[in-house]
Amino acid sequence: MVTKKIVVLISGNGSNLQALIDKLHKQQVNNHNIEIIAVISNKTDAYGLQRATEANIPAILIESKGISSREEYDRLLTAELDKLQPDLILLAGFMRILTPDFVNQYSGKMLNIHPSLLPKYQGVNTYQRAIDAGEKEHGATVHFVTPELDSGPTVLQAKVPIFEEDNAQELAERVLTQEHQIYALAASWFIDGRLVMQDNYALLDGKQLGEFGYAPD
Q: CA dist 155 to 34, 90, 199, Å?
């Protein structure tokens, strides 16, 4: 049985990482074994590194502090990934903007999860921005990574309601619960060969997904 290798990139607490470990690591999808072969952080104090260690997954620090440029950091990251040869790279709260050269090198094999219903609210502070705008719902998006920030083809979204009394923390917790479900699901589709990126579109089972991904309703 073929083993498919995943590397997860993090910067912080790693709750999405934990969900990926729980749902995917050492699991089987049809004719594939899944293994998270490494967790890489750009921050020394990222709790996700401890999560990896506790799961007996190699925890690798490539610290970004003190690195003079994004290009230099991405060269270091590329060197590590080239040694690991992952089938899939998952960004799970990796708080760095990647260079176009890096993204293009791994085009079609890198996914990200973003805490908004893209294309709304790219970037940071999405929860408060949604509340301030009077939105009735918010959510999370799994998408392929392309050079444009938070703009790659959408794979899957999950929506949650915004209540009048919500603050950003309460909304974030509600969204995070959904993130833990949809990210592992999308990754399993990729591992199983069902999900691919082609001509800047996401395809699931050979069918092109729309702007809002699978099951937009």
A: 20, 13, 14
